[in-house]
């Protein structure tokens, strides 16, 4: 199978996997949002940063280092496996002992037992990291799709059952913890790899040289992405945090999942092209353009339909979520650009530059956080948007220098997609304002209008990114039809 075929197959299965998994998670989340109150989602949001930071330490950048390394041995995998496991046990102990202090910080007593129980999921997460890394290196997303969908569905049904039975916030805890457990069990059951009892110091040092910088930058990025949960939970209320977390989850569904799909496939594929700069740039440009075509349309479309969608899916009690979601969508539109430009630095082996850029960008976020504490969540989100623009400039400038792909050229490449998305979003938003009907009918008309505008303009102007995606879809459809 050629690199192109591997990439297309990987993209398709990763796309199916991510969106099947997130689709199930999304639907289950809607059901839980109707059964539970915003406050209960806010309580879980308060401890998100502590779990996320622990997971960053457990990974420590080693899994990216393994994916980047062309020939990994059993010693490499086993060494990092036991490192992941040891660190996970350490952080479980830390979180269990510090849970009381964290609950007092937020002045929410129930946080203590919740954090202690959720921390156990870190051990199961560590047991699955190498299994997932091996599948990513093989560009085998079919098995990951199967596992993620089964885990999401099973854990989701457990959460719904408990919420319906009146367990409140504990239904969210059970859903999260069971998701960790089912994913790990199925990976070990269906993937062939098993560790050997070994810890190779030389292999550890080699991988740590690259991974250590990713660890620090990963910690900074994780803290930045979750610090807003902590600030809102501390200085506002669990209910307000519930509105924000729900908006953030809606925003992440298209933005981060598309980015995740592309990154999972592009990172191992592009890493094989580092010896051919011309080929690397051409492949990278195609991925940037096609990703932004999809993401910008979805994100600005989501901002346009936010109000009728929230009212239709989770009800009027979540109405304050709308404005947060609309503002976050403009930030989410740039997320794939950040991730892909930073990924190029790692592909080129410049995890040191990756780290320096992360420190600079996150330092610029400090004033935004301070302003948010005094002037409110909406002003804080506005500050996040301006930080996003600065971060994009820095990321694209340095990654572009490495493959002769300037920020000017990159903006020129993605401008047609963004202009189309803006035009479509404005028309769809106006439809929502002028229509006088039930939210579900407004939403239906908006969705049809948005899809029609996108299709007609793309065909009329023969947009390159649209045609590239269309070609991939038609080729895959023909292959399936012939089979």
Topology at a glance:
Elements: H1 3-35, H2 38-46, H3 48-59, H4 62-68, H5 74-106, H6 111-118, H7 121-137, H8 141-164, H9 169-190, H10 201-235, H11 238-270, H12 277-304, H13 306-313, H14 321-332, H15 335-347, H16 351-364, H17 366-375, H18 377-403, H19 407-434, H20 439-461, H21 464-482
Structure characterization notes:
This protein has 483 residues and is mostly helical. It has a domain of 242 residues. Helices cover 86% and strands 0% of the residues. The protein has 21 helices and no strands. The longest helix has 35 residues. The chain is globular. It starts with a helix and ends with a helix. The model has no long low-confidence stretch (mean pLDDT 84).
Structural class: mainly alpha
Helix content: over 70%
Taking pLDDT < 50 over at least 5 consecutive residues as the criterion, the unreliable ranges are: none
* Radius of gyration, taken over Cα atoms and rounded to an integer in Å: 22 Å
User: What is the arithmetic mean of pLDDT?
Assistant: 84
Question: Rough shape?
Answer: globular
Number of strands: 0
Query: Could you spell the SSE succession in H and E letters?
Result: HHHHHHHHHHHHHHHHHHHHH
Count helical runs.
Answer: 21
Note the gap between the termini.
17 Å
Main sheet summary: none
Strand content: under 5%
